[in-house]
Amino acid sequence: MGENNVLTVGKIVGAHGTEGAVKAHFFSGPDSTLAQDGRVRLKTPNGDVHTYILDWSSPHKQNLLMGLAGVTTRSQAEALVGAELLADRCAFPELEPGTYYWTDLIGLTVHTTDGACIGNIVSIIPTGGNDVYVVNDGERETLIPALASVVLEVDLETKTMRVDLPEGL
């Protein structure tokens, strides 16, 4: 399956307990598409992709605890910290026009209407009313509301977003 058909849906953020459980953070909350076939795919920071059988999972605060077959010690679980959780794009429903999966937005370069580059989307904060894009240029962080009046254009082909920033941002 091509790289465009695989989405990064979260990452392993920690070990839990002494028996090899991992703590996973999902970009848009724990997702049932992660292990539809009982398998979890992880991409380690060095780029290797490994598939694990999911023994069990349980919600834990804002994360999901998972038991992976063959991962039975805390040190084995700690070795997976930083690994990305992968899912096949075909496991996700088709979106309506003008809506996007977070994984497609993270990394986009954001430009203002006058062409100035603000930085790249590094994360997304869900709020009650609308999401907020966290844009960083290496020195400054800008929070941009995900509103139609602000986000004028998203171009996934060129990996860019054009915004009309409200006064004061």
How much beta, percentage-wise?
A: over 45%
Class inferred from helices and paired strands: mainly beta
Net shape: elongated
How many strands? 12
Compute the gyration radius: what is it? 18 Å
Structure description:
The protein has 169 residues and is mainly β. It has two domains: 3-91, RimM (Elongation Factor Tu (Ef-tu), domain 3); 102-163, PRC-barrel domain (SH3 type barrels). Helix content is 5%, strand content 46%. The protein contains two helices and twelve strands, in the order βββββαβαββββββ. It has helices spanning 74-78, 102-105; strands at 6-16, 21-26, 39-43, 49-60, 63-68, 84-88, 109-112, 117-125, 132-136, 141-145, 151-155, 160-163. The strands form two sheets. It has a six-stranded antiparallel barrel with strand order 1-2-5-4-3-6. The protein has a six-stranded mixed beta sheet with strand order 10-9-8-7-12-11, with no helix packed on it. It is elongated. The mean pLDDT is 88.
Brief synopsis:
A hairpin with a 4-residue loop joins strand 1 and strand 2 (21-26). Helices cover 5% and strands 46% of the residues.
Annotate the secondary structure layout.
Elements: E1 6-16, E2 21-26, E3 39-43, E4 49-60, E5 63-68, H1 74-78, E6 84-88, H2 102-105, E7 109-112, E8 117-125, E9 132-136, E10 141-145, E11 151-155, E12 160-163
Parallel strand pairs: 7-12
Antiparallel strand pairs: 1-2, 1-6, 2-5, 3-4, 3-6, 4-5, 7-8, 8-9, 9-10, 11-12
